């Protein structure tokens, strides 16, 4: 959430004079902040300030670029310096062999799961690169799952912005509050899913 208020301020400042520039700001913000900026920008679309498809496209491109960078980093993960960086990003020696095997045999499940629950997405995409999964195959699953995920986030924000259109004009800080609220809800939901999945796995092992 670092810099979220600055991103919202930049969005509000850019829209009247340059809507295209505002979409570029959204792309950068979505790359850095993820779902929170996407929902916030979609609220602006719901209030009639931006085209919803532009927000969706900016969020989609930002997400795919971020995933591609992680994949590319993983492709060079055998280098000593990068191996240490990968470990700091979650791809530790203990998870390395297991994840690289998983992405080879169950790539669709790994990518869809990572998109639904962002926790674990970074090591999963690093492992895809490290396992030398073909980039076209990687994109063939990343793009559609990202498109659906971005559409859901845009839909949430758009619905909120449509209902609060009048209030947003006089109280733009509602965007920040709403974005933070959605962000917290997403984090709590992800943690709940991770805990539930972990409990099922432990029970299965027993």
UniProtKB/TrEMBL annotation:
Pfam families, A to Z: VTT_dom
InterPro entries to which the protein is assigned, alphabetical: DedA_domain, VTT_dom
Spans traversing the lipid bilayer: 7-32, 52-74, 138-161, 173-193
Domain annotation VTT: ranges: 43-158
Keywords annotated in UniProt: Membrane, Transmembrane, Transmembrane helix
Family in the record: Belongs to the DedA family.
PANTHER family: ALKALINE PHOSPHATASE LIKE PROTEIN (PTHR42709)
Protein name as it appears in the record: Membrane-associated protein
Organism: Pseudonocardia ammonioxydans
Classification lineage: Bacteria, Bacillati, Actinomycetota, Actinomycetes, Pseudonocardiales
């Amino acid at each position: 959430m670092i810099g979220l208020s600055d991103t919202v301020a930049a969005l509000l400042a850019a829209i009247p004079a340059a809507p295209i520039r505002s979409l570029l700001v959204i792309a950068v913000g979505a790359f850095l902040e993820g779902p929170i900026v996407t929902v916030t920008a979609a609220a602006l679309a719901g209030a009639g300030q931006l085209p919803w498809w532009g927000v969706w496209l900016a969020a989609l491109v930002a997400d795919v670029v971020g995933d591609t960078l992680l994949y590319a980093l993983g492709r060079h993960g055998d280098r000593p310096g990068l191996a240490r960086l990968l470990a700091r990003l979650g791809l530790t020696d203990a998870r390395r062999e297991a994840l690289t095997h998983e992405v080879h045999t169950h790539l669709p499940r790994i990518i869809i799961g990572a998109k639904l629950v962002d926790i674990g997405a970074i090591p999963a995409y690093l492992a895809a690169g490290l396992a030398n999964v073909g980039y076209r195959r990687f994109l063939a699953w990343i793009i559609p799952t990202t498109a659906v995920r971005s559409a859901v986030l845009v839909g949430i924000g758009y619905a909120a912005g449509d209902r609060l259109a009048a209030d947003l004009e006089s109280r733009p800080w509602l965007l920040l509050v709403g974005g933070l609220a959605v962000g917290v809800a997403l984090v709590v939901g992800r943690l709940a899913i991770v805990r539930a999945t972990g409990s099922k796995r432990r029970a299965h092992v027993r």
